[in-house]
Structures are given as structure tokens and as C-alpha cells.
Amino acid sequence: MLKxxxxxxxxxxxxxxGYYIGQRPVSELKLTISSLKDTIASLTRNVLDSTLGLxxxxxxxxxxVDAKAKMIQAKAEILDRNFGNAAKEVAEAVAEMEKAAxxxxxxxxxxxxxxxKILIAKSKAVQLDLTMGKAEAxxxxxxxxxxxxxxxxx
Length: 154
What we know:
Low-confidence stretches: none
Mean pLDDT: 84
Shape: rod-shaped
Strand content: under 5%
Helix content: over 70%
Structural class: mainly alpha
Order of helices and strands: HHHHH
Radius of gyration: 30 Å
Largest sheet: none
Number of helices: 5
């Protein structure tokens, strides 16, 4: 019984396709197929573009999270009065922020890129303060961490 129903469905499908092809000219079918190919190509392009955008955004955020982790580690080193190690952690955080700035490839540089450049400059100043052994760099680190959190929240 199942074979009979399967055969009947197959026969009906073949008959329906034959009737449809017989009613439509071949040139119209070629035109329909070519427009379908164009639609699929544009959809593929859109999916690829959005995927690349998501990947860039992910890399940007990951670099900022890594920079934040380094800044927190630097803060812990300051509390332990290890200013040299804190300066190294801030230098690594600056490298992560520069990596984030490079991964942001938006054509008109947006305000995130500008804010990131300002953060990099502030972090380099904190690194210099730590190299000289100034303990008030901790307050500046707190400010930088708040700004990084603000960038991550956007």
C-alpha cells in the first residue's frame, strides 16, 4: 500500500512538472532561474557581510575585555606595591587596546575609535606614572576601567 501511495505521489509530481513546463516557454524558465540565481547570490553576499561584521565586533570586544583584565591585574599589583609589574600589565593592556583599535575597520572612524585612542593615551600616561613609582596612578586606573566598561556597554 505504501509503495502504491509513493508511486502515485511521484507520478502526480512528474505530471505536474511536465504540465508546468509545457505551459511556460523555455526562455521564461531560464529568466526565472537566472533571477533566482541573482537573488541567492545577493542573499549569500548579505550573510557574508553580516558575519564578517559580527566577527570584527567580537574581536574588538574581546580585545577590550583582555585589556580590562590586564588593568585589573595592574590595580592588584599597585595594591601590592609592585609598580614595575603594574607598569608591565598596563603596557600589555595598551597593546590589547591598540589591537582593538586595529580590528575596528569602520570607514568613517566612529566615536568608539576616538574614545579608544584617548584611553590609549591615558593608559600610556598611567604607565609612565607607574614607572616613576607614583601611587596615585590607581585613581587614574579606576577612571580608565570605568571608560572601558562604558565602551563595552555600547
